[in-house]
Write a structure and sequence with these properties.
With about 425 residues, the chain is mostly helical. About 65% of the residues lie in helices and about 5% in strands. The chain has a three-stranded antiparallel sheet with strand order 1-2-3, with no helix packed on it. It is found in: Membrane. This is Amino acid permease/ SLC12A domain-containing protein.
């Protein structure tokens, strides 16, 4: 960890520090005192307490493998490409899927490496929100921190919502394939399954660090195995593959945007949705052993893996996709799942689609770890229950006429309301 004690003393609100027999005392701007017994902390926690003036409360369960696996799980490469592959296809065909990933991914890598450097210097669960408070000019810290915190929260909520929506689509696509396409996917079904999956995510995020670490550790092995086996199966089983000229140079826009070059830029959406949430690993740094080393290492390697493996996976999909208009117009609403069905048949398509569902659920679990998922789920549940109960209790039928004269107010209920009550009772 970088030695930034002098910088912290100048930038933080801590006015005084004193040590005596392993005791750290901090005094805040309002005179509040905090006593931390350094002898009760491990080396990493003691260093955090000394340099940042607070006591970490999480258990450090994450090692190298689980930290790297956690960082890889944030992107959910295999599943996220499945849910976003249609955007570059509409934008410019196969070349948009290939070249937009390569170009935009390079920019995403620059952001990831910058975030990794910040996490190395400030390994706290506050992530970028905390780093901003240390790096920004003191007069700008409140406003910039406020903006950063809200953008982070809204981004997490929107990201999880889109991931849960994609998970619901993939699960129902597997059901439709299993029914030989006799089951018709509706928007109501997708939203209902999405809501149930969101509640499930909140429940899982309520587990302790011990169980989350155990689940996360094996994720990267499962993910890589599915990704490699899927690519091999597609290349081996697809009979009529496209040639290299079609994949890398045949630009075809079906988005409706003109000119084609402008439409081509929409292909950046896929990689932007995949290589994101770079600071998620920062939110568990207080649960990582030697976080100043392992956290930035995991972020850098995980994003590099996502960048390279994602580009290769897109190339394989483009070679094996067949007619793009056929898979884009699939009745199950998942072009890649339809691609699996065309190349691998019923069994193979169900298997890899369900694997994609499992992987994207891990994205939801890890992205919201130590965040607001459980809290938001409780709020939504409480609001939903209250809405249902109050609606059943107070609703008496449609109001035919809401306007009433002032002089009628003292003469009893309005005739329109009386009419509604009679209709409801009837």
């Amino acid at each position: 960890m970088a030695d930034i004690t002098s910088e912290i003393q100048n930038a933080t609100t801590i006015r005084h520090r004193g040590k005596n027999g392993g005791i750290l005392e901090t005094i805040g701007p309002n005179g509040e005192r905090h006593i931390i017994n350094l002898e009760e902390l491990n080396d990493a926690d003691a260093q955090l307490a000394t340099e940042f003036g607070y006591k970490p409360v999480f258990k450090r369960e994450f090692g190298y493998l689980s930290t790297f696996s956690f960082a890889v799980s944030i992107s959910g490469l295999f599943a996220t490409v499945m849910t976003t592959f249609s955007f570059p296809l509409y934008a410019g065909g196969a070349p948009a899927a290939v070249w937009c990933w390569l170009i935009s991914g390079a920019g995403c890598m620059c952001i990831a490496l910058s975030v990794a450097e910040l996490v190395s210097a400030y390994p706290t669960s506050g992530g970028l929100y905390y780093s901003i408070s240390r790096l920004a000019p003191s007069e700008w810290v409140p406003s910039i921190s406020w903006i950063t915190g809200w953008i982070n929260l809204l981004g997490q909520v929107a990201g999880i919502a889109s991931s849960e929506y994609g998970a619901a689509q993939m699960l129902l696509a597997a059901v439709a394939i299993g029914s030989d396409f006799s089951y018709e996917i509706t928007n109501d079904h997708v939203v209902g399954v999405m809501a149930a999956l969101t509640i499930f995510t909140g429940v899982v995020n309520s587990l302790s660090t011990y169980w989350m670490e155990k689940m996360t550790k094996t994720y990267v092995i499962f993910h890589v195995a599915i990704l490699v086996s899927c690519c091999i199966a597609l290349l081996a089983k697809t009979e009529n593959k496209h040639d290299a000229s079609y994949v890398f140079t045949n630009v075809q826009s079906d988005s409706g945007w003109q000119p084609v070059g402008f439409s081509f830029l929409f292909g950046f959406l896929s990689v932007s949705w995949t290589m994101t949430d770079y600071d998620a690993t920062a939110h568990i740094t207080e649960e990582i052993e030697k976080p100043e080393i392992k956290a930035p290492w995991a972020i850098s390697l995980a994003m590099a893996f996502t960048y390279v493996a994602g580009w290769l996976f897109n190339i394989v999909l483009c070679f094996c996709m067949g007619d793009p208009l056929e898979i884009l117009g699939s009745p199950i609403g998942q072009p890649v799942a339809q691609l699996y069905y065309n190349s691998l048949g019923k069994g193979g398509s169900i298997f890899f689609t369900v694997c994609g569902f499992i992987i994207i659920k891990f994205v939801c679990f890890t992205a919201m770890m130590n965040y607001a998922a459980a809290f938001l789920v409780l709020i939504l549940l409480a609001a939903g229950i209250y809405w249902y109960i109050s609606g059943r209790k107070f609703y008496t039928g449609p109001l035919i006429e809401a306007k009433a004269q002032d002089d009628d107010a003292s003469s009893g209920p309005h005739p329109a309301i009386e009419t509604d009550k009679k209709d409801t009772e009837a």
